[in-house]
Structure formats: C-alpha cells, structure tokens
Write a structure and sequence with these properties.
This protein has 2 domains: 1-70, no CATH class; 71-112, no CATH class. A hairpin with a 4-residue loop joins β2 (84-94) and β3. The protein has helices spanning 7-46, 53-65, and strands at 72-81, 84-94, 99-101, 110-111. It is α+β, with helices and mostly antiparallel strands.
Length: 112
C-alpha cells in the first residue's frame, strides 16, 4: 500500500513515478532508433543499384547491426525438388569480419 499521507510517502511515490517515466522514455527512444535504422536498411536493400548482391546485403545488415546485438547473419534459399524441399545458404555475414563471407559448403542443398 502506498502512503501518500506523509511528505516522505509523497516523495517516494513521485520518485517511483519519475523512474517509470524515465524507463518509458528510454524504451520509446530505443524504439524510434530501431525503426529509423530498419527504415534505412529497407531503403538500402530495396533501392535499385549497380552493386553486387553481397554488397547490397552487407550494407543493409550493417545498418541493422548498429542497433541490434547481432554478430552474424545468414540467408538461405529454398529449393524444391521432386523428393522434397532443400535449403542452400546464399549469404553469410560476420560482424568481426565486417563483410560478407563465402557461404558454407556444408549448408548447400540440405533437406528439410
């Protein structure tokens, strides 16, 4: 139960409210930053360019990793065959390298 009948009780309640308000403000600021970065990444990925597929993806992934705790990314393509569905890694990115890496051979045409 909150005691707002004493000066100390009122102070405690105001401090609690200020703390919650600060948490909400920080959350909204983070959300706004993330949305802005995702928008920049979408523009980078969807804008027509004369650059290679890997370069375009690396640009978009790099923007996203500025605000998200991501240290690697991978994109696979599904391949439908008569005997089932397969996946092949077509893009691999690593934060330490800061660039696209060669897709792994062991992630080529793996069945589901």
């Amino acid at each position: 139960m909150i005691n707002t009948e004493t000066p100390q009780g009122i102070t405690n309640e105001l401090n609690r409210m200020a703390s919650e308000l600060e948490k909400a403000r920080a959350s909204l600021l983070r959300r706004e930053t993330m949305l802005g970065s995702l928008n920049r990444a979408a523009i980078a990925l969807l804008s027509p360019k004369d650059t290679a597929f890997d370069e375009t993806l690396t640009e978009g992934v790099s923007i996203i990793t500025e605000i998200a705790p991501i240290d690697r990314a991978s994109i696979s393509r599904n391949i439908e065959k008569p005997d089932g569905l397969y996946a092949t890694q077509i893009y691999r990115w690593n934060k330490k390298a800061g660039a696209a890496l060669t897709p792994l051979a062991e992630l080529r045409e793996n069945s589901y």
